[in-house]
Amino acid sequence: MQINLYHGKSGLRATAAWLLLFIFILASLVYAQPAEDKSLTLPLGPKPYRGKFLLIEPGKLYSAGKGQPIEFERLIKEMKKARFIYLGETHDNLDMHEMQFRVIEALYRQDPNLAIGLEQITVDLQPVLNRWVGGELDEETFLKEIRWYVTWSFNYGYYRKIFDLAREKKLPLFALNAPRNIISKIRMQGYEALTEEEKKIVPPLDLSNEEHRWLLKTIFEAEEIPPQMKGANLETMFEGLYRAQVAWDETMGTKAVEAAEATGRRVVVLAGSGHLLYNLGLNYRAWKKSRQPLATVIGVQVPGNSRIKVSRGLADFIYGVEEKDYPAYPAFSLNLKKIEGLTNLVVSANPTEPLARKAGFQKGDVILSVEDQPVSGIHDFRLMIAGHNWGDEIKVRVLRNGEVVLLNVRFNPELLKKKN
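Below the sequence we write its predicted structure tokens.
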């Protein structure tokens, strides 16, 4: 798997940061490399497809059932009977979001009785989604009230067309995700540590699915684990991560079913493909509760002029997307924190990400302004960064050792090319 590290990560110690990175991998779409990725070829999914494969090329859409390419119109026709449609994504891949938009738009034309469920939004923010669909909020106010760049952090531009379509067509939007603090508590302490109120958000966890565990273990073992983390605690670490993944899937699956029952509509779910692979994630959890027909669509990134071997059981429909050297929208990872008594943000660790490192940020820098505008909140800082494109340059003033230092952040995509 190829992992992009230039998105917002919290300023944690090395071990905790690696744990968050692994969770990010699971929540993101599969990135393909020329070398065979074992997680893409496991004998999982529907039994008739086990041991059978597809060779995925960029720009082509495939039916697992037929074992061959199909046209987009055929995809929509074959999903007509599905009550739940799951559209996987790599969060920072614009082509994948364009496919999501095309599918939603086509499904609406097929049957306007549609709702959309979102991994990207936590359940406590449902009232803001309602106000957006109701036309009460402009985009700027919506992003601030939903705290998009803290709740999710990926550029809103990836999702804008989908949110605009939902408001235009009055398609209900449903928050599916659990707040991060609850997932963190489950990972560290187990489900039993939750309060009764928290258990109303996250249902009991079924950790008994051995095929799902096998999939997650395959991904876990494929990653480069720092030497200091190996040893007796490795299995304990995996168990915590697995609890977190199941908690996400149980919560989102339950909320998707509740959305269908509350509205009587078909529900399209947008989620990272790590939650959907082999129909073993949130789609499986929702099916156990509803027993309603479903369809899962997943994209796989393929290096140019090549093909990727994947199991036909990976999803009901699979499409190839040409692998990019860098995402459509610039972003960089800068660990920030708030200090009591100080309104400004403080850089909490020396950056390892190339854009922030090249700009010269250092641990302890106090952020004074971005483009001469004062900024005191993490969301406001990320929102200002998100408003720029590749090739732009912004000026950030910081206080360092009692002196004001001017840093130039250049959004130079060359720094990110071929970065794994």
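Confidence is low (pLDDT under 50) at residues 1-21, 27-34.
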